[in-house]
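User: Fold this, then the next.

Assistant: Folding the first:
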Amino acid sequence: MRRIIRLIFIVLILSGCASKTNIIVSSTAKPSEITKFGESKKIIKNGITVVYLSGSPYEIGFAHGKLCKEEILQAHEFHFWLYDNRNNIESMQGWMKTARDLEKYIPEEYIEEMKGIADGSGIGYDKILFINLLTTVARRKGCFAFAYKDQNSNIHVIRQIDIAIDQELWKKMILFVVKPQKGNIFAAFLNPGWVDGETGMNDKGLYISINAINMQQSKWEIMPITHLTRYILQYAGTMNDVDEILCRQKAFPGKLLFVANKERAAVFEIANDEKARIDMDSRFLALSNHARLLPSRKILKNSQERLKYADRYLMKNIGSMDIDMALQLVKSSRISSFWRNGAQNRQSFIFSPSTLDFFIALPPESDTDPACHNSYVKFNLLDEIRMFEK
């Protein structure tokens, strides 16, 4: 009987007829656990860990390390094993040299923050540097993102964090809400131990996420993608600000950046010495894992098919899109191909710039369960910022 019920459930998902997504309103629930360190604190809300950090770069890092030491060790157990055995693994020799070479392109405030994480957690600085450069040097994530306008012309962003099944990246990501001494207050959904803007939004309503581009890196005079997106979150308020920050770079890590605010959305294609921008010119904009404008673009068939499927769905439903319809798209096997192509959906995320509401899927219980099929916890960035006052 269970097999029959499971089969029916899968058929409904594939056909796009699954029941509406369960949304949990986080503001109505009392935190189940609170840990404090100075002005910073860690709270568990409906199964999502939220860490609030404020102060100087070093103070933010130190509190991060103190509050999240066990999570850092658990999340990066495999990566720290690689580091400890680097002298016995031939491929790691060049990896560590590249990591050390990239350090000089990291803004000093983020060096200080990583040193704070190291000191607060008791984990060596070189290990913290090592994990913060993973997505620049070694990791190839197959993420997907799109934005659409609802019937009131409000923009909503949907973000799928998909990775290869054989990659040891933690599923229980942490929501960090950061109030730095300089720049914007922002929230970023990350692995513990990272100084990053992988998936985040700031109090100006600007959203950014990192997506794989599948192009070979040939120039290494670059700010690592983790710190570049963190810098954008902290110091950009408009789409033009993002463009200006990117224009100041001598070269780029090979990635796709999905950026949105309440007026527009855009994809920035960056790799080596190339940069291009695709703006939302209709009621939606989607990306997969290939560039469409860069001269040296490399288009993978699976990525191209994924994007075409999403574009057809969004075009068909122009004028009637809502969050439920958006989630039906990401639940389809054509998008979150967790049982095909050796990929898995690690996390699913929604952001509405006009209201600063965002939704995070509860972490999957197993390595193969897709996060996008779980219930979503609702947050509001302004509500989370007010937590600094409590």
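Now the next one, as you asked:
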Amino acid sequence: MLNEIETRLTWRPSRDLAPRERVRKVGAGLLALKELQYLGHTQDGSIAERIENLIDAILKPMESEWVNDNHDGHVVARVKRLRTAILPDLIKGDLDEAEKARRWRLLEDATLAQQLYHYPPNYVGDGASKSRLIETIERFEEDLTGKVTVHGPVEAKVMVGDAIEVSTGREARGESDPLMSAIEAQMRAMLGIASENP
């Protein structure tokens, strides 16, 4: 699968590199392509900083237009808020073709920002399991082609986190859900993934 992805990127397959290094190289290449598409240039800095900056470059202009510059919450909450604002008129069908096309592009951009968010920068770092490498390669394939080739069997380790107290109140629609934030923080800790905002 790495051979196919590298070939799709017009690269000669890097069979001389260890799989982990190939995955990192492909990830960096895909990020650079998206930076060129959205920013017109690649960025300096760590992968984590580059991903965060690219996400903001994609979402902030939409947030200015659609949600009064509300950039609060993590990326999933931000994308949910944007979809909630963009979709209603699209669903009603009252828009002309040009506006429909524009809104579909905005939704595709928001989906890309969310995809970027779901690539934790050190997920395939030193010591990561083979399952994480395979999962990341499968995600590359899905994001590039829309198809998924499942390579099993994979190992599974079941871990149960500490109980999380749940409030009976509910945040306003589109806002960050404290329960989801607590679950995310606990899962990141159990998986050894740095928090989004260190």
